[in-house]
Design a protein that fits this description.
alpha/beta; Alkaline Phosphatase, subunit A; nine-stranded mixed beta sheet; two-stranded antiparallel ribbon; 30% helix
C-alpha cells in the first residue's frame, strides 16, 4: 500500500522554498504576527498595495435582514396603491416575470397596498413607515437605495449571492475578501466576526457557516462565529485540568511539529493552523473582556433597549458590533432571520421591526457620538424584495407577499456614503425599476470603493483564472458617495 505519510507532493514553488529553509523563516515570523503568505501578503497588513487609494471607511458592520424585508411596507412608499386595492396586477407591469412555486399557480394576483402609514422624516424628507419610529429619527445619516435588483428568486442562492457574489456555494464571503485584502487591525481578535441573532418571531431560513466562509481563499480569512450560549467562540476555554502554562507548552510543541510539516510540504493551510492556534490563545483574554458588557453605562441600554442586556438578541449583537469595531475588528456581520412573510405579513413584520428598529438606529447614534461612524460603513438590508400582489387570500386586514428580485430597498450609512440621500426609483407598483438600477455587484463594488479598494484589482487566482467578489461585472455607484 502506498504510504501517503512519507510521500511528497509534486514539487512546487512552496515545496522548493521550504527545502531551502525559507519555509522555516516564514513560520518563524508567524509567531510574531507577521506571516508572509504565497501572495506576499501579511496576515496583519493584508496585500501589498491595498488599499489602492485613500479609504473613507476602515471597517464594515453589515446588518443582514435574512428573509427579505418588504420594501413596500418599510421604505418604498406607494400611496397610489390604496386606490388599486384588490385589482389584478396589470400584465404590462408584471411583464411575464417568473414566479416562485408558491404563487405560480394562483388564479389571481391582487394588488395589496401597505396597511401601514408613512411619513417624511428629517431634513432629507425621506419616507419611512410607522413600523420604524427610531429609524425615522436617524434618516439624515442614512442613504436609501431603492433600486437594488438580483438574479436569484429563492432564499439560499439569493443570500449566498449577497455574501459571496455568486449564487452557487464555494466562493469566499465578503468579509473573507476584506480579511485577505486589508488584513487585521487587532491581532487579539478575529478580523471577521459573524453573529446570528435570535428574535421573537419565527426563525426563518437556515443560515450556513459557509456564508461567512473563505471559499477557495486560505481558511485563516474565514469569519469566526460568535455564539450566544456558552463560550462565545467554540473551544476557547482550556479543557478541564489544563492550566495556561500547560496550554502554552502544548501550543509550542504543536507549532514545532507543524513547522516541520510546513518545511516538507509548504501547504499554506499548515501556517493557517498555527496562526489560528495562536489567535485562539490570545482570544482567551480578549474575548471575555469584549463580551462582558457590565462596564457599559446605563445610558447605553437606554439607547439600545433592555434587550441589549440579553446575549443573542439583535440589540445585544448590535451593541457587541460597536464594541468589536471599537477594538479594531475589520468586518462584522450580524444576521437576523424571520423576514420571510408569505402570509400574515401585517402581524409578523411588526415583530421583526420591534426586534430591530431601536437597536439599528441606536448603533448609528452610538457610532456617531463616539466618532466612529465617519470611518465605519454600516449596511442594512435583505436578499431581495417582496411582491406588490398578495400571496394567498387578500382580506380586509391580512395579506402576504412572495419573493421579488426585480426591486428592493436597502440603506447604508457612514464612511464614504452620502447621508440624507435617496437613490433609485421604482414604478407605481414597486415592481420594476424605472431609474438608476443597482445590481448586487454594483453594491459590492461601491462598498469596496469606500474601503479604498478597486474591485477589479482585488483578485485571487484559483483553478486557472482570477476571481473577485464582483465576478465579471460591477460599477461603483458614484452618486451615493460622499
Amino acid at each position: 500500500m502506498h504510504n501517503t505519510m512519507n510521500s511528497h507532493p509534486t514539487p512546487n514553488r512552496r515545496h522548493f522554498f521550504g527545502q531551502l529553509g525559507l519555509g522555516t523563516a516564514a513560520i518563524g515570523t508567524l509567531l510574531n504576527g507577521e506571516v508572509i503568505a504565497e501572495d506576499q501578503s501579511s496576515s496583519t497588513t493584508g496585500l501589498r498595495g491595498v488599499p489602492h487609494f485613500a479609504p473613507k471607511a476602515k471597517r464594515v458592520i453589515y446588518l443582514f435582514q435574512s428573509g427579505a424585508p418588504s420594501q413596500l411596507d418599510l421604505f418604498d412608499y406607494k400611496p397610489g396603491l390604496a386606490n388599486r386595492r384588490d385589482e389584478e396586477l396589470p400584465e404590462s407591469i408584471r411583464q411575464g416575470q417568473r414566479l416562485t412555486g408558491m404563487t405560480a399557480g394562483q388564479d389571481r394576483f391582487p394588488v395589496a397596498p401597505s396597511s401601514f402609514r408613512f411619513k417624511q422624516c428629517g431634513e432629507s424628507r425621506a419616507w419611512v413607515s410607522e413600523l420604524l419610529p427610531q429609524t425615522s429619527k436617524v434618516v439624515d445619516e442614512l442613504c436609501f437605495v431603492k433600486s437594488l435588483h438580483t438574479q436569484a428568486i429563492n432564499h439560499d442562492p439569493a443570500i449566498t449571492f449577497f455574501q459571496t457574489g455568486a449564487q452557487l456555494a464555494g466562493r469566499p464571503s465578503m468579509g473573507a475578501w476584506l480579511s485577505y485584502g486589508l488584513g487585521s487591525m487587532n491581532q487579539d481578535l478575529p478580523t471577521f466576526v459573524a453573529m446570528v441573532s435570535v428574535g421573537k418571531g419565527k426563525a426563518g431560513q437556515p443560515l450556513y457557516d459557509r456564508l461567512w466562509g473563505s471559499g477557495f481563499l486560505p481558511t485563516r480569512y474565514q469569519g469566526v462565529k460568535f455564539r450566544s450560549v456558552g463560550d462565545p467562540v467554540l473551544y476557547l476555554s482550556d479543557p478541564p485540568g489544563i492550566d495556561q502554562h500547560t496550554r502554552r507548552r502544548m501550543l509550542d510543541d504543536l507549532a514545532m511539529l507543524n513547522r516541520e510539516n510546513f518545511e516538507s510540504f509548504g501547504d499554506p493551510e499548515i501556517s493557517t493552523r498555527i496562526a489560528q492556534y495562536e489567535l485562539a490563545y490570545r482570544m482567551q483574554a480578549s474575548v471575555p473582556e469584549l463580551t462582558d458588557i457590565s462596564d457599559e453605562p446605563e445610558h447605553t441600554f437606554e439607547l439600545y433597549g433592555d434587550e441589549a442586556r440579553r446575549p443573542g438578541t439583535y440589540a445585544y449583537n448590535c451593541l457587541l458590533s460597536r464594541r468589536l469595531v471599537e477594538r479594531g475588528v475589520r468586518f462584522v456581520q450580524l444576521f437576523h432571520r424571520g423576514w420571510d412573510q408569505h402570509t400574515n405579513l401585517p402581524s409578523a413584520i411588526k415583530i421583526q421591526c420591534q426586534d430591530t428598529d431601536q437597536a439599528s438606529a441606536a448603533l448609528i447614534r452610538d457610532l456617531k457620538q463616539r466618532g466612529l461612524l465617519s470611518e465605519t460603513l454600516v449596511v442594512w438590508g435583505g436578499e431581495f424584495g417582496r411582491t406588490v400582489y398578495c400571496q394567498g387570500k387578500l382580506t380586509a386586514d391580512d395579506y402576504g407577499r412572495d419573493h421579488h428580485p426585480r426591486c428592493f430597498s436597502m440603506w447604508l450609512a457612514g464612511g464614504g456614503i452620502k447621508p440624507g440621500f435617496s437613490y433609485g426609483e421604482t414604478d407605481d407598483y414597486s415592481y420594476n425599476i424605472v431609474a438608476d438600477p443597482v445590481h448586487i455587484h454594483d453594491l459590492h463594488a461601491t462598498m469596496l470603493h469606500c474601503l479604498g479598494i478597486d474591485h477589479e484589482r482585488l483578485t485571487f487566482k484559483f483553478q486557472g483564472r482570477n476571481y473577485r467578489l464582483t465576478d465579471v461585472r460591477g460599477e461603483v455607484v458614484k452618486p451615493i458617495l460622499a
